[in-house]
Amino acid sequence: MRKARNSKIIPTNWYIITGGPCSGKTKVINHLAFLGYFIIPSPSRFLIDLERSKGFSTKDIRKSEANFQKRVLRIKVKLENRIPVTHLAFFERGMPDSIAYYKNCKLNPEPAIKASLRRRYKGVFLLDILPFEKDYARLENAKLAHLLHKLIQDSYKNLGYNVIRVPVESIDKRVKFILNKITGF
Predict the structure, then answer these.
(1) pLDDT score of 4
(2) What pLDDT score does 3 carry?
(3) Three-state DSSP state, 90
(4) CATH code of the domain in which 152 resides
């Protein structure tokens, strides 16, 4: 695991739900919220929804994918600074996802790596990819979705995380799989 220089990595009680585009993250996170768990939705979808409410199209918002990803990283940093590390929380995407997206945009991943080394997540769940579907926020295609999925997995593994794969199942079964891994639910 890569260590931050002269800094202590803060352990958290946070779990990450991640995977490439079209892996079912939002549906799993929403189901966890329905069950009463504290969730943090996708920062990228938050940003897209915020900008679309101002009249911008997704293409306009993501015209410069590099700038978009820099904005997403800043949102993630702000969110992580606001959530108590002792609070049980499920995040749709964690800081290391930004490492993958930075690499895909040919950006220097150091800012994302540095941000990823501030806190240690309690667990990381990588959802296997579903058949690809476009939606209002997604500009990727199936080939890029698979590449990002691999980059995301590598980003967590390179930071020493045990990445738990969540197979393609119904939403209910995926959530039960995750809860069973963390609570014996």
Answers:
(1) 45
(2) 46
(3) strand
(4) 3.40.50.300
